Amino acid sequence: MKATARANANIALVKYWGKRDDELILPMNGSISVTLSGLNTVTTVEFNEKLRNDVFVLNGVEQKGDERKKLGNHLDLVREKAKIKWNARVESKNNFPTAAGLASSASGFAALSVAAAKAAHLELNEKELSILARMGSGSASRSIHGGFVEWQKGTKKDGSDSYAEQIAKPGHWENFRILTTIVSGKEKKVKSRAGMKQTVQTSPMYKGWLETVENDLENVRAGILKKNFSLVGETAEMNALKMHSTMLTTRPAIIYWEPETIEIMHAVQELREEGTECYFTIDAGPQVKVLCLQKNEAIVTARLGEITGLQKIVPCKVGGKAETISEHFF
Ligand code: 2P0
């Protein structure tokens, strides 16, 4: 009862920030993302009757405490569905820094869900996999799919209508690029889960966020289908700034930006003023993702490369869906 899956990270163009149900992980608003090629998590799961407890090894380090508990809770969902009681050994590797705002939980729970379901011989369709991944981490619901993806917030109490669906296939927009910058490999101070809860409870800006997000979803959805880069980029950049203004006005304030984060934002604005179209978006961390088209990739990369403190630029195309693979870690 062993299986391995690989899932890509995703970056939201319209963000998920805030839950209406903490237990089932149901969001306050819908979100749209693009799946990233090359930034992935690979996870092997084996259910084994000889194991006395679940074992979780992440990037070569055995996890205890909260991380193992979260994993165990997620495996329980699979064990319940499959009617099995066995514990599992799980080994997982990210090819990018964990918990630095590069959505490791999205690719992590998507890969875990696909691998665990297969190892338990569950035949789940993509909707069921997205719901399962969502219950591990909200953004993971989107990493089940490739291409451009929308996670419907849903309205039902049981969460059965809150899952992600593909808006457009990876091949739909071949020249769309996401340049992921890495300015700090440090673990962030405020995890998304705690941060978004505080925001919903205390930010006076949160009401404005909810009032405008539907319009952002419409614009980004339409922009993707028409391949209107300006519409997608402008809306995504403003949506990220709106989310960060709710974070900044949370009590206590959540400031994810580092000096380099702001330098990159300025560089993107300058590039635009000079006629090179590009836009930024930022998640719950200091990393900036710069959106551009292939024709401008070299010029944007060169400008970002001049910023000291910027450790790495990872260029990504639109990536594919989560899938099982045949090589296992053990
Ligand atoms: C997103 N983020 O849409 C937003 C933008 C961060 C900022 O989804 O509590 O790790 O596990 O559901 O999915 C990060 O939050 O939070 C996130 P949980 P998750 O990508």
Automatic annotation (TrEMBL):
Domain Mvd1 C-terminal: 178-310
Record SUPFAM superfamilies: GHMP Kinase, C-terminal domain, Ribosomal protein S5 domain 2-like
Source superkingdom: Archaea
Keyword Ligase annotated: no
Annotated EC: 4.1.1.33
Molecular functions per Gene Ontology: ATP binding; diphosphomevalonate decarboxylase activity
This protein's UniProt keywords: ATP-binding, Lipid biosynthesis, Lipid metabolism, Lyase, Nucleotide-binding
Enzyme class, UniProt record, top EC level: lyase
Residue ranges occupied by any Diphosphomevalonate decarboxylase-like N-terminal domain in the UniProt entry: 7-164
GO cellular component, one term: cytosol
BP terms from Gene Ontology: isopentenyl diphosphate biosynthetic process, mevalonate pathway
UniProt xrefs under InterPro entries: GHMP_kinase_C_sf, Mev_decarb, Mev_diP_decarb, MVD-like_N, Mvd1_C, Ribosomal_Su5_D2-typ_SF, Ribsml_uS5_D2-typ_fold_subgr
Entry similarity comment: Belongs to the diphosphomevalonate decarboxylase family.
Name of the protein in question: Diphosphomevalonate decarboxylase
